[in-house]
Amino acid sequence: MDKILDRIQKQWRKDGSIAQIAEELSGADFNSLLLALFKQRATKVTPAQLIADFVENRFVKPSDIDPIKSRELELAWLKQAQSQGFRVITLSPVSPLGTCSAMGAVSQHKVISSTRRTEVVADATNVLALHIAHEFKTIADKSAVLRYATVHRHLRAQPFDNPKFTAHFGIFCLVSGGFDRGNKAFEWCELNQHIALILDLLRGCFAVSDMYIKFFLKEDNLQWRDELAQPHHVWHNLPQVIVADTDNTYYQMLQFKIYLRLPNMDIDIADGGFVDWTQQLLGNKKHRTFISGVGIELVQRLLLPQ
Question: Which of 80, 99, 173, 247 sits in a 20 to 30 Å window from 8, CA-based?
Fold first, then answer.
């Protein structure tokens, strides 16, 4: 390690900016430099400072959620997802550096960057899309639709105004990936598949009369509006709102949110839509990805007995 650092120091130009240093160092050298810096910083940490950081640093504070009730709810939801055609998977606490910013155009400042070319998972749907893209590179059946489900504890760096929101929280995540079959067959199938599962899960916690669904069209398309209103879709019994939302480019084509009516407010408890992430990862415009997520910890924290 010392030899590597000596070589990096010799290459380090005095007039070099931080950006130039980050771009010019190889991945291995950059990782070695970070490891050395963190090692040096860690030697200066005292026991008194350690306990102060544990108390003051919002990223390391334990959750006050009931862990037994939380695990019971997670297990029930994952079993339900498995019974409805989703493969259940446990993800690593970290993902490749740039997982959120490279695909979802999310600022790197909103995630916790780490060493060894990793970042703490801030959105498990990004990681599931990575997994699906990798699998499509190896499987022979390109007509397959891959569906994955997980519950993951996310850690995000941006501050929250609501004091009930913590830096880390549990999210139930679903991702489907497959190639275009024409006539929007993949799109309508997966939209129904995800919403059907989410509605089944939420019906176990809330009255249907307390829920409604809102669709956000990324292109104000009359064909989409007409099809969304058809009675054969799984959401036809819910009150529906369809609006145009062309400013938000995170999703492609369409986004949905499921809302719960509470005494003092309406809360969007579930969210999903089409993204172009696997198109980027596979370099193929014909590939499709649909993602969704439910605030499973929010369900427990705000709406279930503690």
Answer: 99
CA distances, 108 to each of 98, 103, 156, 230 (Å): 7, 11, 10, 41
Return d(Cα 263, Cα 266) in angstroms, integer.
8
Task: Tell me phi and psi for residue 80, to 5 degrees.
Answer: -65, -40
Residue 306, pLDDT score? 47
pLDDT along the chain (306 residues), means of 10: 60 60 69 76 87 89 90 96 98 92 80 87 95 93 94 85 76 97 93 97 92 91 89 94 86 94 91 96 95 94 63
Q: pTM to 2 decimals?
A: 0.89
Q: What is the 3-state secondary structure (H, E, C) of the chain?
A: CHHHHHHHHHHCCCCCCHHHHHHHCCHHHHHHHHHHHHHHHHCCCCHHHHHHHHHHCCCCCCCCCCHHHHHHHHHHHHHHHHHCCCEECCCCCEEECCHHHHHHCCCHHHCCECCCCEEECCCHHHHHHHHHHHHHHHCCCCCCCEEEEEEEEEECCCCCCCCCCCCEEEEEEEEEEEECCCCCHHHHHHHHHHHHHHHHHHHCCCCHHHEEEEEEECCCCHHHHHHHCCCCCCCCCCCEEEEECCCCCCCEEEEEEEEEECCCCEEEEEEEEEECHHHHHHCCCCEEEEEEEECHHHHHHHHCCC
Per-residue pLDDT at 34? 74
Hey, what domains does the chain have and what are their CATH numbers?
2-44 (no CATH), 67-303 (3.30.930.10)
